[in-house]
Amino acid sequence: MLHTINKSPFETSTMETCSRFLQPGDAVLFIEDGVYAAQEGNRFSADIRSIMEKSNVYALRPDLEARGIDRITEGIGVVDYQGFVSLVEEHQVNSWF
What we know:
globular, 33% helix, 97 residues
C-alpha cells in the first residue's frame, strides 16, 4: 500500500492517524503541504524515523522545492513526478486527506 499524505502535520493529525494503519512493506509519500513533515529537525522527525522502521518514506521533490525545504530527515527518499508515478504503479494507493 502507498499512503499519500498531503496535509501538514503542524495543522492536522493525518500523519499520526496514517502511521497507526501502516503495515510492514507499505510506503508513505509526502506531497503538497505534507512535505513539511519531512523537514529535518522538526518535532515530527522522531515520528518519521519510527515510521521508517517498517515502511519506506518518500517526499515529492517539486513540493519540497516549492516550500523552500532543502534539508530533510535522513533516510527519506526524494522522488520527482516520474518517481511518484512509479510508486503508484507498484502499490495500491490510500490517500489521507
